[in-house]
Amino acid sequence: xxxxxxxxxxxxxxxxxxxxxxxxxxxxxxxxxxxxxxxxxxxxxxxxxxxxxxxxxxxxxxxxxxxxxxxxxxxxxxxxxxxxxxxxxxxxxxxxxxxxxxxxxxxxxxxxxxxxxxxxxxxxxxxxxxxxxxxxxxxxxxxxxxxxxxxxxxxx
Length: 156
Description:
- By secondary structure, the protein is mostly helical.
- The chain has one domain (29-139): Arc Repressor Mutant, subunit A (Orthogonal Bundle).
- The protein is built from seven helices and two strands.
- The protein has a two-stranded antiparallel ribbon with strand order 1-2.
- Helix 2 (32-42) packs across helix 5 and helix 3 crosses helix 4 (59-71).
- The relative contact order is 0.12.
């Protein structure tokens, strides 16, 4: 197998899928949607650096994403009561509602594409992407669509 050619195709195809089904159709810039979804799923306060590490973004990129989400009213920032030098971010009610509305539409769009692949191919694609995500980030799947509390209960 030519892994470099496969890598080129993966990059092109994954960017196309993200833009077509998940990106600008969600009325958020690329990168904003996963951050908003994660904050909405977990509904707790996060330090932006910790959030960047969890989601695999650079800290400057996370700052730009959070600036945009704050400007749209989907995320709020505040200084930590214990250490005023630290900043904490949290999703707003408006952000939760937006993530729900947009998430439902994106899930439907991607589900339609997966259905066109057929059950076996769709299952194989998801399995391979989960493995690639795990190798890349060495983390649990944070984009499950379930709040963190539900994921913990299911593992128990």
